[in-house]
Amino acid sequence: MNIFVVDDEKAVRDYIVSLPEWEHLGCKIIGQAADGWEAYEALIEMKERIPDILISDIRMPVMDGIELSRRVLEKFPDMKVIFLTAYSEFNYAKQAVKLGVSDFITKPFHESELLDSVKWIKEHRLDRQNADLIRQEEWIQTLLNPDLSEQAKSAALGQPELLMKSAVFLSIEIDNVDFLDYTGKPFSKLTLREKIFEVMSFCPFPYWSALSQSGVYLILFTPLTLPQDETAHEAMDVARRILETSNESLGFSVSIGISDCLNSALELRRGLEEAKSCLDYRMLIGRKSIIAFPAMRSLKEQKRAQMEINHTELTEVLRKGEVELIPDYLNKMNRIFLLEGLNKKRIQEECMEMVTVTGKTLLAFGLQPNPEEMLAVRKSVLSFTILSDLMPFMQQFLEKAVSVIGSVKQKTSGNLIDHVTKFIELRYMDDITLQLLADELFINYSYLSRLIKKETGQNFRDLLWEYRVEMAKIKLSTTNLKHYEVAYAVGFKDPAHFSQLFKKLTGKSPGEYKS
């Protein structure tokens, strides 16, 4: 099989082209390009050696991968396309499927992912299902559309035979998918779907599938005559086999939410909501979980009323500046989350509050948190779907903050006052402010202001004016400068103000003092 590679990163192209496994697979790289337009022109010129597979990046200059594949597949409909991208947006995946793209792999990728995808194409495993997949994708999107009535959905689908069968909705999600995307770790939703196909080839019931934002949707159709408990048993059995197959062979883990039994596919929207609510509890249960809606509903009915979590204890722990206190605090919070049965949203809210409390505590110690770092921490918190993964991240964040606070506590107030004094002595003639000093010391303005007042009984402005007057006394005694010239020389902008302040502090006017 002949392969053409398109990527605006030369290092990526060189890596793909140099893979020694191509010869073993019976494949040959016959061309490469740095952008979509260059690739399109090259492919048009290849009249006799049309590539069997196009491996293309999506985000490229001049012409992106979506437009390139659209044009190429119009002219060469038998060509297979594999997308490589550092982005995992759902819209790209949907466009990829509708264009007839064979796979969608996120960067950075392991060579085995790309090679496996080429193997599948070679064996025509994805090709035979392409038309059905596109149709199922359109049907599922129609059924999930909240703006359409059941009558409108039924009319839009043209009453397919499966529409009136009972069904169960399964949402198969990649664990921590947003975090994987954020950190650049590789995963492929189309590879996951292929593993699901392997399992479903042994299932006695028909099914539909579609790519979701975080994995794959699977709709399992069962006869209306099948009792609900047996339907639930079959759905659970399918979920177990999918979990076993995917978690054994993929480089990432998945979890599955299962809806209650639906009377027909027209209730698919309810199925989606139930399956999604199940996966919220993956935060507590952990990765590689299967959560069924009836069991989750029972859990919600049994749990106690959620208590209001007080974060005062965190403030106290942070103020002590002792790193060894953090694990005990987080273990306590972990127990609260588990005992209260909090869902993903509530746990993330509590962890976000921990971040806020930490930021306020740092400010109280005169430390200005880096806004970009704090934003990155908040994004990471929201990207976790597993509590056992989130808590180590929170521990690392809190321990870092405590270490910084501990270091500040070791600095005495006297040392900071020495900095203030030296700053005034060196720059009293300049237009200096407390804010400028706080910025240079990387200390919160309000904290520094309170510290100066506490240690000296004066504010920064008074200390500065007092020192300027002392310098003015020396200049008046040792130079021939007029009093207004002295005012400017020691940093005052208004000679009249200088004269008033000088007399207030010395009991004499500048002229009287000089004489």
TrEMBL record:
Any one Gene Ontology molecular-function term assigned to this protein's record: DNA-binding transcription factor activity
Residue numbers bearing the 4-aspartylphosphate modification: 57
All copies of domain HTH araC/xylS-type, residue ranges: 418-515
GO terms (BP aspect): phosphorelay signal transduction system
Stretches assigned to the Response regulatory domain: 2-122
InterPro entries cross-referenced by the UniProt entry: CheY-like_superfamily (IPR011006), Homeodomain-like_sf (IPR009057), HTH_AraC (IPR018060), Sig_transdc_resp-reg_receiver (IPR001789)
Keywords, comma-separated and alphabetical: DNA-binding, Phosphoprotein, Transcription, Transcription regulation
SUPFAM superfamilies linked: CheY-like, Homeodomain-like
UniProt protein name: AraC family transcriptional regulator
